[in-house]
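Problem 12. The chain below contains 78 residues. Write out its predicted structure in token notation.
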Amino acid sequence: MMSVIFWWVRQVVLILIGVFFLVFGIQLLIAAYQLKDPFSFLMTFFASNFIILISGTLIIGFAYRMISAYRQSKNKDN
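Solution.
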């Protein structure tokens, strides 16, 4: 029972970390448009988009894993 609760808590924590990096990537993207140097803009722009892409994918993956585990537990109970 304790390992099941730990699994759910771990998934929620991983989603929260993903949300943090998603917000960080969006803030970095907004900050990139304030830069005057074209090279710095390009590097910051692509880095922020990469951060947003990875964190968004991880959020979707963890949420999908949680939804499928919830559905399996509901089917097991019936």
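Discussion. DSSP finds two helices and no strands in the chain. Students who got a different answer should revisit the alignment rule from Section 12.3.
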